[in-house]
Amino acid sequence: MASATVDFETPPFERIVGEFGPLISRIAMTYEADPGLREDLVQHILLAVWQALPSFRGDASLKTFIARIAQNRSISYVARQVRQPPTAEIPEKLEADQNNPEEQAMQANEREVLISATRELPMPQRQVISLVLEGFTYPEIAEMLEIAPNALALRLSRAKTALKTILERTR
Amino acid sequence: MSEIDLDRLGDLWRASPDPAELAQLRRSAEAVRRRARLGQVTDFLLAGIVSAIVIALIVSNPRLETAALGGAAILAMLIGTIRQRRLREAELRTLAGSTEQMLDQTVARLQATVKRARFNLLSAAPAILIGIAFGWALDRGTGSPLLTRFSASPLTSLLVGSTLILIGIASVIHFTRALRRARHELRHIARLRDDFQSETDRTTD
Question: With contacts defined as CB-CB under 8 Å, which chain A residues touch B189?
């Protein structure tokens, strides 16, 4: 992760991009398959984060704050697109590992399938699955979505079942 | 059927990102930050320039009417800026809130946009007619040299008339498109809000 390179002398926004850039990028990837539109979406998210940063009071973690903005911006962006979502799958690029290209290719393929499967989920389930995959704890997700923990458990259970069905279909 | 292993999928999901994509992200962030700062500076400079011009006009022409009009112009600009800032703050608050709240507020905003677009479209035709009638009345009644010169030349009359008609048609097309786009967006967002609402209902029943 890029967090290892974070320098506390750099201004906050640059530090945030260094630390949470991959998170923002993955959230955008969950909602937008088209690379051109995804780039546009990432810029929208970054602008929203830049503008919202002064209002961050530390009630939740910075990661939660940014993930929430990224999720909401992505959902409103995708929902407001006049076009239909693209049906063709666009392969995602992954870092090439020269030491073990075969294993890397398999992992890349598996990740590609996972991202595509996640995009097929209905929006509320996609949101909850992507937050779990991002490594947020259940209390953090419940707080972020403002739902009760048992409601989250039910939503997650349905999302897992749907994701499993899609993954099995694609194998 | 075995359960899916979310821990393993999470590791896969968070696998090392493409360095080129990260570099692109940093470039985007820098561009966004620069644009946003430029926007802030431009807003500030424009407000300063307009205020300076208004103040200079008042000083060079120190009359009650000039002062009142200049004051009103500065006040209008100030109110506009405060309103813009409040709108932006409200939008940011919704982004940092729950998704359902954000969708509710987006639906409310889009409903207002649809109403405004419908009003613009419906008022376009009467506005054009009133404009034509006003021009015709001026032409007939005042006999001002400029209008007389316009009506004396058939080519100028034709040019002005066709330009006005073209502007009218373009306005109607623009308002129709804006209305259609706003309705389309509203349908999408409302459907999405219903999806989230029904998911919440299913999980809280």
Answer: 76, 79-80
